[in-house]
Amino acid sequence: MSSSDLPADVEAFMDFIGVNIKASGGLVWNERDRLKSDMMLVRQRWSPSRVSKEALRTKCEAVGMSDQETAKVVDWLQKTQSGRRLVPQHTKGFRWHQDPTP
Q: How much is the pTM?
């Protein structure tokens, strides 16, 4: 499965995260918090019918995340999809500006 299997809003959000990863040298605290916050505030964006673990894993690798960072993000996706809660430490209330697209 390729990252092109992701909805446009998730694809754009992960591209944004990727630009910041390249600038900071890795998935730093603010990018982790942005991901967690959006996953909590806009659960429908990350639903199993929209985002598969495989497609997100492929996209994480494509935007430059390490294997360890990719594993964390996929774990957060699994937790989100199973109804569990993620807690951003600093950047609470962040929501990607694009609404979920079909």
A: 0.87
